[in-house]
């Protein structure tokens, strides 16, 4: 850190709180240690909940923290208020098998036992969907207005599983809402997919249009103007979007666009061509 940057950071972040500390990578911890050299730092975390090791998260960070901030005060939150006793006990038994742990903890709860947990092994995505949907139908009480599905939630890890559920729910006429942005609907992912599609032979106009829209600099309005113009030319000349764009951006001077826009367009096209 240059001294000025360091000072500014110290002034900006006079106290630091890190939640889910177990997901901190060695690099992030290194930065944190610098930023928290004023010792005004609180970390909250649980080494048993580390799920980002694929991303470099390193649970040994707790040991490093204890070593690097020797005046820290440790407060253990052993009581679980969130889950039923059945869930807390099953999770504790399972977690006991973890090998990389700072220490063994005792989780306790005053909550009632609640329903037993069912573990069901399914051999395919389809049989998993069928099982869950049968369970939903069995569990929801039917009334004159129909079934009450509002209290059921399905949690899944992979988007592909979510897709299978959506198809099955539609087939079985079960109303549903999906929370969280679906991976393939994220703006950045859509843009990356479009750019990759332009590298495929015979790619049609859609991905080229989207790739250009993503990579061109400028605000929404400016981009729209350019895309609309390229589209107009491609329609008039009955050629593809990309050949119209190539033609427009290879001109030295344009009656429609500023010189900088032409240069930028040419740069974007050359990037896309270099990919394919
Ligand atoms: N002292 C308390 N009394 C009653 N309920 C509590 C208490 N503390 C937390 N809860 C409830 O327990 C649930 C979990 O709390 P919270 O999200 O703060 O836990 P957490 O340890 O941060 O969870 P995570 O492990 O997901 O980070 C919440 O529904 C909260 O309202």
Question: What does this molecule look like?
Answer:
The structure is a single chain. The protein is mainly alpha-helical and 276 residues long. It folds into three domains: 3-68, no CATH class; 125-171, no CATH class; 185-275. Helix content is 49%, strand content 4%. The protein has eleven helices and four strands. It has helices at residues 3-12, 26-35, 61-68, 85-95, 125-139, 159-171, 187-197, 205-215, 220-237, 241-250, 259-275, and strands at residues 16-18, 41-43, 142-143, 146-147. A two-stranded parallel sheet has the order 1-2. A hairpin with a 2-residue loop joins strand 3 and strand 4. Helix 5 crosses helix 6 (159-171), helix 7 (187-197) packs across helix 8 and helix 10 crosses helix 11 (259-275). It is flat, with a radius of gyration of 28 Å. The model has no long low-confidence stretch (mean pLDDT 89). The structure holds adenosine-5'-triphosphate. Adenosine-5'-triphosphate is lined by residues 46, 49, 81-82.
